[in-house]
Design a protein that fits this description.
The complex is a heterodimer. Chain A is an alpha+beta fold. Chain A starts with a helix and ends with a strand. Chain A has helices at 2-11, 49-64, 85-95, 105-125; strands spanning 12-23, 29-34, 37-43, 68-82, 129-144. In chain A, strands 1, 2, 3, 4 and 5 form a five-stranded antiparallel sheet that branches. By secondary structure, chain B is α/β, with parallel strands linked by helices. Helices cover 27% and strands 25% of the residues of chain B. Chain B is built from four helices and five strands; from the N terminus they run βαβαβαβαβ. Chain B has helices at 10-18, 37-40, 54-61, 79-84, and strands at residues 4-5, 25-29, 46-51, 72-76, 91-97. A four-stranded parallel sheet of chain B has the order 4-3-2-5, covered by helices on one side. Chain B starts with a strand and ends with a strand. Classes of the chains: A alpha+beta, B alpha/beta. Chains A and B meet through α1, β1, α2, β4 and α3 of A and β1, α1, α4 and β5 of B. β1 of chain A pairs parallel with β5 of chain B, so a sheet runs across the interface.
Chain lengths: 146, 101
């Protein structure tokens, strides 16, 4: 990561900007909404908190080494909407397929339980209900220093 | 209803508040299926979007919005390999799209 920021510094023009987006270490939330009202919400059995903390540390390190000056930073809620929790999980599996994380049977079991509970809540509210993944991400801008 | 990712555009609006993209040369690292690329490209002069995962770039290539074909360049490559082959000071903005972690 530190190497990546060094390379980004080299590629940037002097008045350029580096923008980093990554999730906060807190677990995302799987929620069910019906007509704007949240009727179910639970934290997801995610992993990745440590890698997000490492990204924060890499940025701090790049600033301390004088590569970048800290610019503005903001936190946004990032929503993924799906007709059901099962379809939401299938989408996540597809877009995260690159991650090559080791299989974790306990985590998969917890996901399956969560999907069941969420879809039960969703079916009880149909029509008009949807499953929503809520992730909180930090967006940081950095200015390259000479 | 299919899956909709950030239809509120919270992410792209926040990015566009933090960095000017209009007329700029942009490098997006970890573009995945192009979800964020399509939102920053209309403002930019040129976007190079890279991702090491070939299936993601294949999905992006099949989904380039009309009118962005000449603005966006997609490459299957790691940032390390890409950067090694590029000259210094080539971009106005480098965006790490959920890829630094």
């Amino acid at each position: 990561m530190v190497h990546a920021l060094g390379e980004a510094h080299r590629l940037l023009r002097p008045m350029g900007k580096l923008i980093d987006l990554h999730p906060l270490p807190s677990a995302p939330v799987l929620a069910v909404f019906c007509q704007g009202k949240m009727v179910f919400s639970e934290e997801c059995p995610s992993q990745g908190g440590e890698s997000y903390r490492q990204a924060d540390r890499a940025i701090e390190d790049a600033i301390q080494r004088g590569l970048f000056a800290q610019g503005e930073s903001t936190v946004v809620d990032f929503f993924t909407h799906a007709p059901s929790a099962a379809e939401l999980h299938s989408h996540l599996t597809t877009v995260n397929a690159f991650a090559e994380e080791p299989r974790d049977a306990e985590r998969e079991r917890r996901w399956a339980d969560l999907i069941n509970r969420a879809d039960k809540a969703l079916l009880a509210e149909t029509p008009g209900a949807e499953a929503v993944l809520i992730e909180r991400a930090r967006i940081t801008s950095l200015r390259p220093l000479a | 209803m299919s899956v909709a990712v950030d239809p509120e555009e919270n992410e792209s609006r926040a990015i566009l508040r933090l960095a000017r993209m209009r007329g700029q040369e942009i490098l997006e690292v970890g573009c995945g299926d192009g979800r964020l690329t399509w939102r920053i490209a209309p403002e930019a002069a040129h976007v190079i979007a890279i991702d090491p995962y070939e299936p993601s770039i294949a999905r992006a290539r099949s989904a380039i919005p009309e009118g962005l074909e000449s603005t966006v360049e997609l490459h299957v490559t790691s940032f390390k390999d890409f950067a090694a082959a590029r000259p210094k000071s080539a971009y106005d903005a480098v965006v790490f799209s959920w890829s630094l972690c």
